[in-house]
Amino acid sequence: MWAAAASLNDILITQFKTIFTLSNFASAFVQSAFYGGYFVIAIPASIVIKKTSYKIAILIGLFFYTAGCMLFFPASTMATYSVFLVALFAIAIGLSFLETSANTYSSLLGPESSSTLRLNISQTFYPVGAVTGILLGKYLIFGSGASLEKQMSGLSGSARIAFGEQALQKTLLPYKYIIVVLIAAIIIFALTEFPASKVKSDASAKGAKITETLKYLLHNKPFKKGIFTQFMYIGMQTAVWSFTIRLAMSLNTSINERDASTFMIFSYIAFFLGKVAANFLMNKFGSSKILLWFSIIGSIALIYIILVHNMTAVYAAILVSGLFGPCWATIYAKTLSTVKDKRHTETAGAIIVMSIIGGAFIPLVQGLVADWTKSMSYSFIVSLVCFVIVLFYSRNQVKQGN
Question: Membrane spanning segments where (predicted)?
Answer without folding.
Answer: 28-49, 56-73, 79-98, 124-142, 177-196, 231-249, 261-278, 290-307, 313-336, 348-369, 375-393
